Structures are given as structure tokens and as C-alpha cells.
Amino acid sequence: MTIPKHVNSKRKATKAIHGGKLLCADFGQVSVPIFQSSTFAFPTAEDGAARFAGEQAGYIYTRLGNPTVNALEQSIADQESGYKGLATGSGMAAITTVYAAFLEAGAHIVSTDCVYGPSRGALETIFARFGVESSFVDTSDLQNIEQAIRPNTKLVFIETPANPTMKITDIAGAAAIAQKHGIPLAVDNTFASPYLQRPIEKGADIVVHSLTKYINGHSDIVGGMIITKNAELYRKIKPVLNHLGGTMDPHQAWLVLRGVQTLSLRMEKSQENAAKLAEFLRHHPKVTWVNYPGFTDHPQYKIAKCQMDGFGAMIAIGVVNGLEGGKTVMNNVQVFTLAVSLGGVESLIEHPASMTHASVPRKHREEAGLYDELVRISVGCEDYEDLRDDLDQALNKI
Ligand code: LCS
Q1: What's the CA-to-centroid distance between 200 and ligand 1, angstroms?
Q2: 264-395: CATH, from 2.130.10.10, 3.50.50.60, 3.40.50.300, 3.90.1150.10
Q3: Residue 191 contacts by C-beta under 8 Å, 6 or more apart in sequence?
Q4: Which one of 93, 263, 269, 355 has the lowest number of neighbouring Cβ atoms within 10 Å?
Q5: Which residues line ligand 1 (CB under 6 A)?
């Protein structure tokens, strides 16, 4: 048996490749195995009781813990500079588990107004039935967070960059406000990934991810992750996840472990393509506006530059003829795929008002800056020239 090496680098690409592997290196294997077992044998009845009592380390049942899933949890927690991770069956399972851990009847949450549609919908349609109150504000202006906090506020939840408006919230500023009031701050870091942004380093308490996006990167699984800053928060959330049951299965975890190893390469290529494409689109006669945090005149450019290691690969645009023009573009692309989701190696295009954010009433969408004319682009890893020429020909059909 080979003695596994413990790779203990603080650098991002190395962490993405080696994180979590040591946990399962029993035979010197280089890839983490898939422990496809729902349950784990106890050596004796006493051992079983001791494991349930938390007095003995060891696996019990995959909903409560699994070696492959744990390896992924360790990997993402390391990359996020967090304490530990809790893998979930989807990004929404991560988000609703965090809601359920902190919000009870009569509690209140302050959230970014332009969060991913279902992150808002879950609060307004499900948690509201259990007596949870929510305020959705433009968190890119920190004063709005301060003003929205009430005596019964139990969680501040921000998404930055926000889907799909590309608004940026100052994480350190939001953390300072939340901390002053003794409220945990949770950050949806899906759009940036830990390669570009690590909210816990800026003072956040909890990070959530849709792993479906950049972290997995290949549009072949749905998954989520919760990462906590410390053991106390982990212990508060873990039983909620185990009871509600939105956990991840080992095969899903293995695919994400495979995908995340190339996170640095994919992020670098996609954001390089996105920067060029944003510039190209900005000067295109059929494009009326471009939201991209890498533009020096983006309203929160300075915050993005300060808290992110790069501007990411998501772009929101408006085109001439509004929604009709946008439909023409979406119906004529050939290299881009007309599909929701984002963060995969392939470039995607979609219409948030009628697709990803259709569950948010128009009034709320427009208050949050999500207009009918907005078309969202997820820039992938293809050759830039092909992406540029494809959008150019589709735009010229308007
Ligand atoms: N958070 C953000 C920022 C997201 O964009 C999504 C999904 C989720 C959470 C939920 O993750 P899931 O449960 O889907 O893994 N966003 C999607 C989107 O923009 N298009 O399709 C899904």
C-alpha cells in the first residue's frame, strides 16, 4: 500500500486538484473511489451504538455521511477557506436547508432582491406558509441591508454576482452589518466559484453553491454545497440536512470531484472569453446595453475588483427591439445553446424573465432590475472567435 501524500497548498489550482483526496487514499489510488453503499456494517452492536451516539468515528448510513461525499465536502470547504462542507442533492437543497436551519415561525430574512428565482420563491411560497417573513432589497447598496434588519431578523442572504443582473454586493460590508446585529451572513457564491471569490475570507458565516454550475463544470449533474465558517454553524445545519434529507449520493459526488479538478483551467478560459465578448458586444450596433462587472463603468466595479480574483464569465445584455430582438438572437445561435443553467464548458444563452426567473412576479422582477429585455449569456470554453461570430450573425438577424 502506498502512503498517501498530504498536499497542503494554499494555492487555488492545487487545492482544486488535491482537496479531499487524502480522506480515501487507502490503496494509493489517485482518483477517489465511488463508495456506492447506502449503509455501513458495524463491527459490533456496541460500535453501532457508539457511532450513533457520536462517540466513535465511522460511517453509518449514506444520508448521514459517505466517504466519497465527504471527500467532495472536504475539497470544497478547503477551496472556500471554510471549516467543513455539507453536500446536497441540488443548489436549492443547500439554500432551503440553510433557510430551515435559521428561520422559524415569526423569524425574518433579508435577501438580495435579484437572487435566483427559486431562492426567492421558496421563501415567498413555502417558508411564508410556516410564518417566515422576508424582505428583498438591493443589497448592492449596504444601507438597504441595515434598514431592512428587524428585531426578528435571523439570517442575511446575499447572492453576488447576482443572477442575472450581475449586481455586486460588498461581502465584507454586508458581513460587518450582519455581525453588528448578531445575525449570520450566508452568501450564494455560485456565479464566482471559490476560484474567483471566497466569502468566508471576507467575513461571511456560510457559503452556498449550486455545484451544478462552475464547480462541476460539465452540465452533467445537479448538486449543491453548504460550507460553514466554524464548527458551531456546521453542527446547527448538519442535523437539519440529515432530517430533511436533501443529501447527495456518492456517484453524484464523484462526478463533481472529477469536474472540480479543472476548475482553474475552465474559469480562466471562460472569463478570458467573457471579457473579450463583453467588449465586442458593447460596440455591437444591435446591442443596447451590457452588464458585465469587469467594465470600469459597472456601478460596483471597484467592489468586484476588490473582492473577486476575476470578473467571471456571465454577461447580461439588452438588444434592439427588446424581447423580440432577444428572441431572434436566442433562436438563431448555433455555437451557443439555448438552455438554462450556466457555468459549463459549453456556452449557453437564455431569457431569465420567461425562464429561470419566471416564478418571480413581473413587479418584483422589474424592481430588482430584471427587465423583460434582458438576455443572459454564460460564456464557456470554446474558441473566442466562434462565440463572437455566432453572436454576431444571430444579432444581425434582428
Ligand atoms: N443559486 C444560483 C445563483 C443559481 O443560479 C442556481 C441555479 C441555484 C442557486 C440553484 O441551484 P440548482 O438547484 O439548480 O443546482 N440557477 C439556474 C439558472 O440560472 N438556470 O438554471 C438553473
Answers
A1: 21
A2: 3.90.1150.10
A3: 159, 160, 161, 162, 163, 213, 312, 314, 342, 343
A4: 355
A5: 90-92, 116, 119, 159, 163, 188, 190-191, 210, 212, 222, 224, 340-342, 356
